[in-house]
Amino acid sequence: MAQIESAAIYLRLAQLGLPMPADVQDSATAKLVAPILARQRELSRRLADRLCAADSRIQNWLDDYLADTGVAPKLPRRTFVLDEPGLARTLSLPQGSDEFTSPLLSSYRLANGVLHNPANDRRTTAGVFHIAEGGLPIPDDKIAVPKAVFARLLELAFRPPEVDLVLPYTANQPEPAACFVSLQLRPLVAPAVPGWVREKRMETRFIVPGGLVANLDFVEGIFGNGGDPYLPENDASLAPETWTGHTGAIVLAPHLTKVTKKSLGLPHVSTASERQKRDGMCWEHEDECYNAGQAFKACARDERGVIVTVIADNYFGYCKKEVKTQISYSANLFGNAEEEHAGGALVFPSYNLGQEYTVSARSGESYALSDVLDRDPDRFRLQPEGHAVDAEQPHIVLVPMESNFSLRTGRVSWTNPNGAEASIPLRADTYYLTPDGYQVRMLQQPADRTQWSLRGTVPMATSCHKPATVSGGGKSEISKAITDAFIFGNAYSPDYDADMDAVAAILERDFCDRFADPALCTDRRSLLASDRSIGSVIKLLTPGAEYTPAYNEWLESIPQHVRELVYVVKRFYRPEWGTDWRSHFTVGIINGRRGINLRLDGDKIMVNMLRVGFDTDGSWRLFGLRHDFSPAVKVQTEDDITASTVVSGHMLGLDPYRSYKLVENCEELLFQRPDDAIHRGYDKQAELDIASPGTFLSNFAPLTHADAVAMRDDAVAFSQFTAPMRQLISAVADSAPDASPRFFVSSANPRLVGGKPSKNPRYLQKRPDRTNADATAVADLASHLVRKLPSHQPLPLPVDVVAAGRRNNPPDGAVPPLCSYNPLHYMELPELFAEFISSMTGKSPSTTGAGSEGAMTKGPFNAMPAILDLNAAFLSFALTGYDGWVSCAGFVGPRVRVDHDISMLVPEVFSRMTPEERKAANLVAEGALEKIEDFEFDGRTVLASRLGYRMTQAFARKYFGRIFLHPHAVFTEAMLRPELQGEAIFAESVDTIVATHERVAKAYFDDGTIELAIPPLRALLEIMAHGHSAEGWTLETPEFRELFTREAVVGADWYVARLDAKQQAAAARADAGLKALQKFISTPGNEEPSQRLDVPKRIEAAQAEYNKFSSAEYRAGIVGTVGRQPL
Fold it and tell me: Which residue ranges make up each domain of the chain?
């Protein structure tokens, strides 16, 4: 493999006329192809090193855009083109060596992949984003760059120091090769709507000096390789049905931090404008460097659809975020598309079914295995016993409804339609699905591998979408399993006889006296009745406002372990026991005395506890989980960069009178920061990922064979790692001291910066929905089965729940408090968008304190006016009717630290609620949400109503009671009402929020982008900035709030104008695509590729597209979508 990669690289170097090692140059193969390559170089020279199609579009735009500057930067005519995936990885390290060091980067070949440590382990976003004048409006939070200055920066970007151009692969050769390297990307901008619209992608060209080819390995891993840009197969303009019509360019040029302001043509401070003085776009001393010598990125863009960015740094995060920026630019110009800073997952609620379970129908619909086989005759194979195996996924078996699963017998059994009994072995490596998609699996107890249980998973997922989530707000956590915060133990009884007497008394009690209103006492079922659920028992034994004080006092008197024993008996009770349940439980005899660990018919009873925050001394707050609780099965759908679209329900076969949002992850690999991995064994997923071969890592320490030996010799610390990391360390320790690769990375060893571990260790994680392909396939099949669809029919699953995340912090020196949120808030659209516009965050590993991250948290990475994103986001909420939820991370109040524990709980609880239960209006009506009112404090009005509604103890009891045994203990009054932790701090937190609302809103007036705001948001910004709108409305004015309804939107002239603008843009794009194809086929010399690509058929399809987009039917069909901002 290495020989093939070397040959591929040397072939391309020879094609560019770059030096190669003497032994390669003199080889028989090199001599054989030399005449062909010489002819190819001469043809390229005669064509003046013709630019590829994408570069031509960029160059033509630059020539026009910069025509009045007197500066004409040119894209490099010759670059090492990464036309195949994997070339960048090979090029990033020297041939025959495991280490490469330059002033910008230190690189290492690892036993577990590659490590690239930039000179700086992290970067700020303050003052980084510069935008050239002469295009679209420049937001107030960006630095405005004179167009001629941008032209000079771009021109200088293509004149790096020679040392920066050296390809690491050739660094150890007598004559290293030096050149630019380029990569074509085709990032996703808008997801497909099956049967209606194909997915849409933009094109982005990435050009770097050869020494920074590692950055291209990085972005290629995340966004893929768009192929050879010189081939017509990869020309986006020849595939208009999948192209947004937009082109981007990104150029890395770290040397620009040394360029002086004066040399770029910036004015002296005496002649500079006020904005130039504010932005630092002037100089006082001739030796002043541009942007004070700090990293920056400068972009130029206009409404024509080309964006060009120069990045004066090589920090990997900048590269990813700039692609994100360009996706966002394309989405705004394309229309009915959003680029969102979001996390998300499909969440399938799961349950511990115990040792035996019979799957029964859970809805009024009937499901039969024969119907599944009729729908998918080629996929499933009926077996003689009456079940079916999946020909595509051998780990999946379909069994009939009413099948019984028994760990005691080790069989799955059922009755066939002819009355015959049948059974098959119950296997641990198999997923069993019933015809309605319900899934049953065997699972081992992590704490005791001899203990097994059955897990049932519901086939109807809840799609959770977490947009506008600030740094440290839990984007990734929404899709993570909560098991890392589990503690496993045994059910226990410290005084068995007395405890069981107490349990018996509770089970035999008459509970009809519990209600304060005796009329409510209509339920006389016993606690062990088969038609009373364990959830009903938990609710019965949890204090509540509807109960009498005496009953609540009695509940409080029950020892917690006794209450849990009641739940244990209820969980395992079987009707055939009758009243003799007690004989099935024991604690055994140890050293002649009764033990304390409870057993059921001789088997240990395991209990699970979950961490929800920390006590003031740092110890975990642990709470018992219901015995029938099992963590939800999650399929990650988003992690950071999301492409989304809003469609009318009729396109999805759903409610035609409302709209729905579809989301898709734009990334193949995820740039993760494993904050907890420094604690050996805690972040199991990170240790598995980092120990895997081929991992891309940054900001870790390069460890050697000697380090591996020392780590393994420290038996105690070594044992704390999970198995994958132990295996990696042992493999390195067992290898020869000088074996290649000479280095490896441990998850617990970030690089040292200034003598301290970096707080920003990073790695590229393979998408969990890809790595856990079996579970993803099962989830997809279950989703089809429950809907009675053929398994290969496209099934877009729209968003069900939208819950943003906020990071809270207590006061900390100069950092103001931001800790007024309780665990879960609901906000109506005016308050929600005041929150989104400010997007405040508290202190986290990637921030320095409370402040605004810019609208929708995209501030530093948005080349367009933020109001465009806000307009689209508002419409997506108003048209879909999604409730606006906000969960917290970090702290609840100033004293309760929760980190991401709430972030991971939110999808669990929402997935266990029905759509009707999740409706905020219903939750308000039942007292599960309370409205927060303004209040007087210290002589001033605190505008706490900006926080919307928050969850109450009633929400905790009813809905978190589906997870916890004691939900009222999990969420204390001090957590539900953070003002109880300190009213002054609560008031200051609210004041900080309101002040930020005002400051951020005023910026839209300062930069003039308020003129682009749709009427509801314009009125809101006026209220945030001035306290009232132009009409005199406040947040409470009914006429103002009416603007935020779907009915007001769809009838508004401004909404009609957006739909018209979308139709006009779609027709214009189709027309441009048609003309590009016609030009290509009519150009002499294109006869062969036109035939190969079947261009006549493409022209026919493009003409049909143009006719469709120009039609009245298309215009009528996009009602209910976001439309496009008229520009």
Answer: 1-44, 74-93+127-332, 360-437, 492-574, 669-766, 801-1002, 1054-1117
Model confidence pLDDT, tens digit, residues 984-1041: 999 999 999 999 999 999 999 999 999 999 999 999 999 999 999 999 999 999 999 9
Q: CA 660 to CA 348: how far, in whole Å?
A: 20
* CA torsion angle 786 791 796 802 (round to 10): 40
Contact between residue 666 and residue 187 where contact means Cβ atoms under 8 Å apart:
yes
- Are 108 and 114 within 8 A, CB to CB? yes
Using CA atoms, how far apart are residues 151 and 71, in angstroms rounded to an integer? 6
Lookup: tokens for 635: 């399929």
- Tell me which residue has tokens 């400010």: 838
With contact defined as beta carbons under 8 Å apart, do 871 and 1017 qualify?
yes
Closest to 431 measured CA to CA, from 703, 190, 776, 5 = 776
Write out the two tokens for 243: 């192209």
Total length of the chain: 1127
Q: Side chain identity at 733, as an amino acid letter?
A: A
- Percentage helix, strand, coil, to 5, in the chain? 40, 25, 35
> How many angstroms separate the CA atoms of 491 and 561, rounded?
9
Spatial CA neighbour of 833 closest among 886, 906, 880, 879: 886
| 936's tokens | 């007087």
307's CB contacts (< 8 A; 6+ apart) are 246, 247, 248, 249, 299, 300, 301, 325, 326, 329, 863
Burial of 4 (0-12, 13-18, 19+ CB in 10 A): exposed
DSSP, collapsed to helix, strand or coil, labels residue 325 as helix
Phi and psi at residue 642, to the nearest 5°: -115, 135
938: its two tokens: 């210290």
* Residue type, position 370, single letter: S
Count CB neighbours of 609 within 10 A. 18
Fold of 74-93+127-332: Phosphoenolpyruvate Carboxykinase; domain 1 (3.40.449)
Cα–Cα distance for residue pair 772/158, rounded to 1 Å = 43
**In the sheet that 356-358 helps form, which strands lie side by side, from edge to edge?**
356-358, 404-406, 411-415, 421-425
List alpha helices for 714-812, DSSP H: 715-719, 723-734, 768-771, 773-786
Q: What is the mean pLDDT of residues 758-783?
A: 95
165 Cα distance to chain centroid = 35
Amino acid present at 821: Y
pLDDT band at 854 (very low <50, low <70, confident <90, very high): confident
- How far is Cα 439 from Cα 430, in angstroms, rounded to an integer? 10
> DSSP state, 559?
-
pLDDT band at 24 (very low <50, low <70, confident <90, very high): low
Tell me the percentage of the chain whose pLDDT exceeds 90.
81
User: Under the phi-then-psi rule, with left for phi > 0, alpha for psi from -120 to 50, and beta for the rest, what region is 1008?
Assistant: left
Are the C-beta atoms of residues 1104 and 1056 closer than 8 Å to each other?
Answer: no
- Which of 341-370 are b and which e, b meaning 16 or more Cβ less than 10 Å from the residue's Cβ? bbbbbbbbbbbbbbbebebeeeeeeebebe
Helix (H, G, I), strand (E, B) or coil at 340: strand
Whole-angstrom distance, CA of residue 335 vs CA of residue 1058: 9
Instruction: Return the structure tokens found at 34.
Output: 């030399």
For residues 841 and 835, is the Cβ–Cβ distance under 8 A? no
Candidates 802, 979, 962; CA nearest to 892 is 979
Q: CA dihedral defined by 1007, 1012, 1018, 1020, rounded to 10 degrees?
A: -70
pLDDT in tens, 374-408: 999 999 999 999 999 999 999 999 999 999 999 99
- The residue whose two tokens read 């690089």 is 751
**Residue 641's closest CA among 404, 904, 323?**
323
CA 918, distance to chain mean position in Å, is: 22
